Each structure stands twice: as structure tokens, then as C-alpha cells.
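re: ur question from earlier - yeah i can do the single chain one, its not a big deal. heres the input i used so u can compare w yours
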Amino acid sequence: MGQRRLKHLTVGSGEAARRIAILRRAGKAPGLFWLGGFRSDMVGTKAEALDEWAGETGHASTRFDYSGHGQSDGAFADGTISRWLDEAEAVFDAVTKGPQILIGSSMGGWIALLLAKRLLERDAADRLAGMVLLAPAFDMTKDLMWDSMSAGDKRRIRKAGFLAEPSAYSDEPDIITLALIEDGKQHLFGKRPIEAGCPVHVIQGMADPDVPWTHATKLMERLAFDDAVLTLVRDGDHRLSRPEDIERLLRAVDGLVAS
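and the output i got, formated as C-alpha cells:
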């Protein structure tokens, strides 16, 4: 079915303008809308598998790189949740048509929930066909970053404006900026109920060193308005990119398409 095409979209204006790279495959609804994680890009194992599934089944597929990631413009250190959420919304509005299944991995799970919130606020619930969240790092700037920092690290990030931490997935360290932490405060769901506006399937590895599986159970407690399912993978890690994990992801997507 439809060939995937690379296109670009400029988001923001003036000095804040950045060119966002998008891979789009035309097809039928519901389309798949991929939201990657912190420092990931749109050509990872899960994103490629979803696009291949879309091609085989005739569904539309959209994925993109946040600014400072992959093929998009911008410096990673300039990134904030607000900035990346604005890019996700801009790509969603400019490129997709009809109902979409939001598929978010790690930080992308938080972005997916925030994007759904914006769509509901715009009375655009009909654009949401479902949501699959993989190790969703909602509220991560507080719960998974700031709250886990030592007093010394908090002093250092306040003084220098950033903290460099070793990454398990790259030779380059993760740069956590004070701007990212401060900006994240306005997007925290906290303990409030969360309305997704569509069925939600959460997939969480119990051997995940970055997003504890208990974090996913906290999310399930907050998804009080929607049909929500949690799948715990006892030996699953953070990436959830093994063949058996990919099969589990595709079954979840297929289940939402069929519902």
C-alpha cells in the first residue's frame, strides 16, 4: 500500500522556528501516530515495525523527530515538554486525517496523553481512535528525574543549568536541563484523574530500570474515564524491542483497530 514519504514542517516563528522531519505513509483510518521517547528517533525498531504493519494492512502511518532529535533541526538542550508537545500537535494537525491511534514510547507516552488532552479541549475527540503506551513516562520531569536526584545533583543543575548523566543507550550522556525540569511543572498530571478520550492499552516491562512498573500502575489508577488495559511483561526491559515485544505491540494496535 501507500509509500512512505519524507517531508518537513516548520514549527514556531522567528528564532523559535525549527524544521521538523516527518515520515508519512498514506492509507486508511485509523492511522498510526508514533511519538518517540527522550533522545530517540523515528527510525527505531518499534517505529519501523509499526510502519511496516501499516503498509501491510493499508493503514496510514505518521512519525516524526522532535526538534533536537534525529533528522529534525534544533539543539537537544533547547528541548522542553512544551516545545516537543507543540511539535507533536503541529504535525498531527498538518499531516493526519481522520481518527488516529496514538502510540507513545517512554516520554512519548506522556506527550501522547498531553496531546489527547489538547484534542479534548478542542472538542476533537473524534480524532482519537485509541492509544498504546509503552513504558509511559508521564510526569517524568518530576517523578523520574527531579525526585530521584541527590541533593548534590540538584545544586549542580541549579548552578550550571544542566546535568549530564551516563546513558545506558548511547555513548553520549543524557543532558537534563533545568529548563526541562521547570517547564515540565506546567504539564504534570499529578494525582488528578486523566481523561484520554479513547481506549488505552499500556504495555510495561517489569524489568525496566528507567520507568518502574509501579509507575504504570499509578497511571492505570488515574485513567478513570476510559477503557484501559495494562499488560505487564515480567522480563521486559525499557525498550520493549525484542521480537516478542514487537508482536505484543502489534497485537495491541490490531485490537484497537478491530474494536
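The radius of gyration is 17 Å. not sure if urs matches, ping me
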